[in-house]
């Protein structure tokens, strides 16, 4: 029986047409306790980040919920060949542990790489994996922060990403903050400066506030290390 804060959502797999149930956190039960400066939200109770990847237990196809059913026909065959042919059908837990969630995000990352998702989409998956490692208290967080940063920066310069859940201001801010977190302070300061000087920043007052705050934090870090 699911906890009161979870409910079962029925999904049809676009690869194998299998019907399965996956869990989601009820919006009415979501209570944010705090946020980190790279936008990770901590919740009282179940964290919905653990349930944002859908995984088909029949064929192994995994993707973020918002793109799970948007896979192209040619890419379906790639998943069948590279994932489903090696997948052992299994029963997946409806209540996910942090380790379950990390496993499913990594599977979504693998599937996404196979079908050549946009860099920003892959970067988002890597960022979420780093968040889960942070919640767990695992040093693997930094490795995935680096992966995320690399993909975000490549996507910022080479992709149109507004349809991927990111905008120019938020993505630029995240790149700056990830640079700060891995210790590349000069690059962080430069990116924060780019964000706050962008005319579009006024459309994102929360991100503008964060960028100015983290620009100051990065300046202080540089001064302390000088």
UniProtKB/TrEMBL annotation:
InterPro entries: DUF2225, TPR-like_helical_dom_sf
Name of the molecule in the record: DUF2225 domain-containing protein
Organism: Thermohalobacter berrensis
């Amino acid at each position: 029986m699911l906890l009161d804060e979870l409910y079962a959502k029925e999904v049809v797999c676009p690869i194998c047409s299998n019907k399965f149930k996956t869990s989601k956190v009820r919006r009415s039960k979501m209570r944010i306790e705090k946020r980190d400066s790279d936008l990770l939200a901590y919740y009282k109770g179940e964290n919905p980040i653990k349930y944002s990847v859908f995984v088909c237990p029949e064929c192994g196809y995994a993707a973020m919920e918002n793109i799970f059913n948007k896979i192209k026909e040619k890419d379906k065959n790639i998943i069948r060949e590279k994932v489903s042919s090696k997948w052992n059908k299994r029963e997946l837990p409806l209540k996910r542990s942090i380790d379950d969630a990390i496993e499913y995000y990594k599977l979504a990352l693998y599937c996404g790489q196979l079908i050549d998702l946009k860099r920003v989409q892959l970067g988002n998956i890597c960022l979420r994996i780093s968040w889960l490692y942070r919640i767990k208290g695992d040093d693997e967080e930094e490795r995935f922060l680096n992966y995320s940063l690399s993909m975000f920066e490549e996507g910022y310069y080479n992709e149109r990403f507004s349809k991927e859940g990111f905008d120019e201001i938020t993505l630029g801010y995240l790149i700056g903050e990830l640079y700060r977190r891995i210790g590349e302070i000069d690059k962080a300061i430069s990116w924060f400066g780019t964000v706050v000087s962008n005319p579009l920043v006024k459309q994102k007052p929360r991100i503008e506030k964060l960028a100015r705050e983290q620009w100051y934090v990065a300046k202080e870090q540089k001064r302390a290390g000088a």
